[in-house]
């Protein structure tokens, strides 16, 4: 019998990292360092830790994800999202490890009319988007076996996200305005983790996989405003006491000034993933309903 794989999961305190600990537990011995043990703001320190742990698989959901704050801290965002990713990719290439990495709709400029495909030209409009794009490119340049899973609007039971923010604001405020001219799809952190585990299992069965970049989002298209309305309606139906009467107001992006520019069209075409691996991705409404159910259940005594 062969020994179990050693799987390093970075960012295990984040939304996706938390779910990965569940999804990958059957696939190997998990090493889940926190940032004091594996600090992506210090790219030069990572190789020594990797040499000590000798992971067969590096799964890297750790990232600098504060999109507006990144505009003021570009060096830190680049260290975490690009330079450290480059260091992990070089180590993976030299040590024949598999690297599973995550990227974002924010690598695109949002100008396309229909959904973005994996090989469409990136044109990031924010520091966060650029840092994630440079991280992707470093992986491709390293020559390591890799999957880059590009997703959007990730929400999990664990961690911070738009869905939870909407529930919190609807509970505490009688007014809420949400942008209605940015389109995309919410994606559960658990879905990303389950797809990751599926790909890892395939690699363990047969190392000759169609590695590369894949889009992974829940299916369909919505706006942040429609998404907010949907979540708040679920909370109202479940009897949550809300300060907000009715639905949030629809506004334009120019009426919600933010430091970083967000893409107008974030829709990601997932047909490459679905066809290559024969996987089914759920409609965003089903995914969000299930996520809300879990959050609602957790509130009940
Ligand atoms: N959230 C989203 O909407 C989307 C996310 N993605 C991508 O998916 C991946 C996972 O995102 P998500 O789970 O939402 O992210 P979170 O923001 O929930 O978690 C980020 C994780 O990274 C860790 N981290 C941050 N800085 C460092 C550091 N210097 N050293 C080590 N660890 C660090 C955090 O640790 P700590 O707890 O110590 O801060 C945390 O565990 C990321 O690559 C992100 O770019 C893609 C599309 C959408
Ligand atoms: C809280 C709030 C947000 N908004 C808008 C701002 C923004 O355009 C949109 C979503 O808000 P967020 O703060 O979640 O946006 P943001 O942090 O940019 O979300 C992004 O995070 C990174 C990590 C990603 O990779 C992306 O896929 C995406 O999920 O809603 C309102 O219109 N009204 C509100 O009250
Ligand atoms: Mg955010």
UniProtKB/TrEMBL annotation:
Catalytic activity, EC: 1.1.1.133
Catalytic reaction equation(s): dTDP-beta-L-rhamnose + NADP(+) = dTDP-4-dehydro-beta-L-rhamnose + NADPH + H(+)
Pathway: Carbohydrate biosynthesis; dTDP-L-rhamnose biosynthesis
Gene3D superfamilies assigned to the protein according to its UniProt record, in alphabetical order: NAD(P)-binding Rossmann-like Domain, UDP-galactose 4-epimerase, domain 1
Co-factor remark: Binds 1 Mg(2+) ion per monomer.
Keywords, sorted A to Z: NADP, Oxidoreductase
GO molecular function (one): dTDP-4-dehydrorhamnose reductase activity
InterPro entries per the UniProt record, alphabetical: dTDP_dehydrorham_reduct, NAD(P)-bd_dom_sf, RmlD-like-bd
Keyword NADP: yes
Cofactor(s) required for function per UniProt: Mg(2+)
Transmembrane portions of the chain: none
Superkingdom, natural source: Bacteria
Domain RmlD-like substrate binding: 6-294
Role, per record: Catalyzes the reduction of dTDP-6-deoxy-L-lyxo-4-hexulose to yield dTDP-L-rhamnose.
Family in the record: Belongs to the dTDP-4-dehydrorhamnose reductase family.
NCBIfam families, per the entry: rmlD (TIGR01214)
Protein name: dTDP-4-dehydrorhamnose reductase
Organism: Vogesella margarita
